[in-house]
Fold these 2 entries.
Entry 1:
Amino acid sequence: ELLALCLEQRFKVAKSLGNLNNLLGFPLTLLATPPGTEWLVAEMGMSLPGELAEISLLARPDVALFTNVRPVHLEGLGSLEAIAAAKAELLDGLADDGLVVANADDPWVRWIGERWTASGPSRRLVWYGGDSQYRLANVAARPTGGTRFLLVTPEGEARIELPLHGIYNAENFLAAAATAHALGVELGALVEAATAAAPVGGRGAVTALPLGATLVDDSYNSNPVALRKALESARALPGRRHWAVLGDMLELGPEAPAFHRAEGEAAARLGFSPVVGVGELAQHLVAGAAAAGAATEWFAGADEAAAWAPAQLAAGDVVLVKGSRGIHLEKVVGELQAAADEGSVG
């Protein structure tokens, strides 16, 4: 979304439709590309080795952007090294004179970038983050949920006001801005793109509810690193009480119970109480939160949690809702919003 927004300042752009990013969905994204499109911004997704190679060879991309390698899809891939290798398959279809944009702050992304430059004498690579030419400075969260920071580029620096919740979205904007700038979008246009950014439902959207309550809807998906960032960002929002409804983090393999317990402990240490778990694996999350001193609840599914949560919402609360796609915590978000709209916040 952010990269398409940045590129739209200069080019005619199309982008992935929803989450049509896998072996079945990606061809639909290609087929839906309107005539005259100059840049197609396409997400490529995978769960197993070989999938990204096939998608990349189908797409023949001109630019590959690598943001991070996280403990996701461990069930099918087994290790961070295997995940990095699977993501590197994106290079299989990249044009010989293609451009790689890579996050210098992620060690496995650095490995992918270095693999690209080692594969040929004229390989083009742009780093962002770290001490590279594209980086952030003076990053600060705003009480309203947005962020402000200094964007540093080879063209100069610019003050950015990004109306998106979470420091992690400043990092996301940096990735998009570095790519767009390397493709010819000027710094001033990137500033304009930032002001036009809008939250995507389920991806950290912050909603002010009646009586000063705040809902952070991050219900679309989850993994251990993303959950930790979401907890830290939600905790930075002003409120009388912070609590969270957290669903299973799926596809983590044998270490899934340990990941869940660690994030439950982290939620409690950050001051979230109650910590509400949804799903079988979330029992470990709740156990970790309870051991660290938080009040807890557990529900087997989203329907039960959605029935329970509205009665708990009180004036001045900040509530975070986050879980893997398969847990369907958007049901909890819907019930919380409906209760607030009906004026039944305590």
Note: The chain has a mean pLDDT of 93.
Entry 2:
Amino acid sequence: MKKRSLLIVSACMLLFISLNAQETNFKFGIKGGGNYAKYTVDLTSTGMDPSEFKRKIGFYFGGFVGIKVNEKIKIQPEVLFALQGAKILTEGIELRGGPNEIPIAGDFEANIDESIIIAPIAMQYFFTENFYMEAGPQFGYIINIKENIKENPFEEFGVNNTTIYFLSDYNKLDFELLIGAGYKLSNNLGLNSRFLFGLTERGDSMKASVFNLGIEYTL
């Protein structure tokens, strides 16, 4: 209930500001870029070592509406599609078929690919005409999560089913907070970078952590 209330309050505050701005201008645009994402986990809750979760490269693209409140403040709601997730790497696994057999050592490596529709609402403050910093909430809906296994030492023993436990029962709704900065190269073209940290869990105490960098083009 607390998380749901926070979502509603955040959305209402941003909507109130935009509707009551004295000089409001709307500009539409498109954006896209790359992201560098992973999951953060709690060892005591998941039993998984946080160091086994590595970042993986993905991408995002979509559109936005730039709402000018005044010369210093702008609000930018967006709707984006993103492919993100995490890489899982467990090194030095020792397996043996029996107590008297020589152990087989190997690494387990898999990519977790997450397809998600995200809706950030960024409040931007312009320190100069071109440079700004931003912050705000981001809402998301996870379309799909799947595992792509790269290396699997368990196959030596005929075990192919090593699906990560949370993939079959995960929370499709996502809520994150974003902080970032951007620079306008011209009236139409700009650079934008963000860090997003998740507040909702994929599985037990497993949350998203995402860096992204991209370009924006105002139509």
Note: The two ends are 39 Å apart (CA to CA).
